[in-house]
Specification:
CATH architecture of the largest domain: Alpha-Beta Complex
Number of strands: 19
CATH topology of the largest domain: Fumarylacetoacetate hydrolase, domain 2
Strand content: 35-45%
Largest sheet: 12 strands, mixed
Structural class: mainly beta
CATH superfamily of the largest domain: Fumarylacetoacetase-like, C-terminal domain
Distance between the termini: 39 Å
Shape: globular
Order of helices and strands: EEEEEEHEEEEEHEEHHEEEHEEE
Radius of gyration: 18 Å
Number of domains: 2
Amino acid sequence: MRIVRFEDSGGRTVLGQWVEEGKARRIEGDLFGEFHVTDDVVPVQRLLAPVQPVNLLAIGMNYRLHAVESGKEAPGHPLVFAKVTTCVIGPDMPIVLPAEAPDEVDYEAELAVVIGQTARRVSEADALRHVLGYMCANDVSARDCQTRIDLQWTRAKSFDTFGPLGPWLVTDPGIDPGTLEVRASLNGRVVQDANTCDMIFSVPTLISYLSHQFTLVPGTVLLTGTPSGVGMGQNPPRYLRDGDEIIVEVEGLGTLRNPVRREE
């Protein structure tokens, strides 16, 4: 099932099952509890992020080739950080280059995992039972704040609009998160093209590891790392600029498209 959050023609926020362009069947109930899909087909005026994360966790340096392009050794354990949830936006919404740090804003195409059932100290074998679904994500990052100014990642990763998610949440239990193509295109040119099989730590490993550190509650969104090809890794570096368009695609999960604008 492809689940969307959207605004209808009256400006109301609605949860639905995607039918086709501009249409969705309304969902009633709690996405993380009991819900059902109605027969009521509603016009989709504007897509929003599929979920509003309770917590937004992310993993750094989780693809082997990304570690190579960064000039670092593969980490011995997952590198965990958090993004402030107010950074989240939906498809087609602009990524805004912040006035405080506009010059080195980078893209990171990622597979996002949405936790559907509380996970605390779960095994790798049981980890995927706690997943509601998967979606595309872009872990936008201000590299100057991340690597030189702040020397930690919270602000660099959390400026408003730095968390595009979408276009929908896919709940197919047959998805294997370890064999998905991940791609990013900047102004029509492919800049990242990899497979989640290049991950250092698999999705079940990440969920199990994180659940032993803190409770993963329903509505937690996990960004699983980005492959090689980020702007910082190019020679010379190619950061996002006003007027750009960045597209993230994950196999079977749709296309997440966002324009880039400078802050007025």
